[in-house]
Design a protein that fits this description.
Layout: E1 5-9, H1 13-25, E2 29-33, H2 36-39, E3 47-51, H3 59-67, E4 72-76, H4 78-81, H5 84-87, E5 93-96, H6 101-113
Parallel strand pairs: 1-2, 1-3, 3-4, 4-5
Helix pairs in contact: 1-6
């Protein structure tokens, strides 16, 4: 059986690398990207983890992620989570920073079980 594919989109290298490592340890096929546009050039994943900090939160980029209709976990602080484009979208799960890597990985695992 093929492992679920997860995209981790985060413009900061170490949080992205650490989450990728945690998910790889749990048996997922994980790809890391610094921004939404780079990720959208690759084949579709089963789950997306999107860190909003440092992303281009244009209506177009958010709509492109949302239109994939893939379970998406959104991570952000008050500033990012209150952006109109984010508030108007229906995300699978929204996690407010600070949040641990384990909590994020557990959320991915829970979603992947239901795919």
């Amino acid at each position: 059986m093929k492992p679920p594919v997860v995209w981790v989109i985060d413009n900061e290298q170490w949080p992205r690398a650490c989450l990728r490592a945690e998910l790889i340890e749990r048996g997922y096929d994980v790809y890391g990207f610094t921004n939404i546009d780079d990720a959208l050039r690759f084949p579709r994943p089963d789950v997306i983890v999107l860190e909003l900090r440092g992303q281009n939160l244009s209506d177009d980029s958010i709509a492109r992620v949302r239109d994939l209709q893939i379970p998406t976990i959104v991570l952000g602080g008050n500033l990012e989570l209150n952006e109109p484009a984010i508030l108007q979208s229906n995300w699978h799960l929204v996690l407010k920073r600070p949040v641990s890597l384990g909590t994020i990985a557990d959320a991915v695992q829970k979603i992947a079980r239901n795919i």
